[in-house]
Amino acid sequence: MRCFPLSAVSFQRKVLKPFALSNGQTIPAGVIVEVPAGSIAADGAIFDNPGEFDHLRYYKMRQSKGSQATGSAKAEVVANSQFVSVSESSLTFGYGRHACPGRFFAANEIKMIMANILLHYEIRNPDGVTERHKNVRTGSQLSPDHTKRVMIKKIQGDI
């Protein structure tokens, strides 16, 4: 979800009345404001090798940052490096008082669905293609290219 988010942006909000920022700039009513969540997730100042998928990325973050802290500081580091964590650098489930209250349920559902798929299906690209197909962008939404083929085969037998 960090490498290939569903949307390049997050927190789309329509300004209902003119809003003055601390620098004096005013955002007029009717304007849509949003946060560039995709750019944040790809920021090298926040994530080492942001364009590279690392299935142990958050585990390593918990281990390295957690080893430098103790007590409640360590607990905070561990809590902020979980799939359901919300922070300025992890906006998948929102942030602050508007964070998704169902994110804990959603995380468990995602894990169960992925476990079921991995246990019961073989998934690969056809004809020896090893690279992931590029996403298609429609406005701010990102999705897999529906014109590309993916081979899905049910694994026979008991596991």
From TrEMBL:
Coiled coil: none
Segments passing through the bilayer: none
Keyword annotations of the record: Heme, Iron, Metal-binding, Monooxygenase, Oxidoreductase
Annotated residues for binding of heme: C100
Pfam families membership: p450
Cofactor: heme
Gene Ontology molecular function, alphabetical: heme binding; iron ion binding; monooxygenase activity; oxidoreductase activity, acting on paired donors, with incorporation or reduction of molecular oxygen
SUPFAM superfamilies on file: Cytochrome P450
Annotated family: Belongs to the cytochrome P450 family.
PANTHER family xrefs: CYTOCHROME P450, P450, PUTATIVE (EUROFUNG)-RELATED
Name of the protein in its database record: Cytochrome P450 monooxygenase trt6
Native source organism of the sequence: Colletotrichum higginsianum
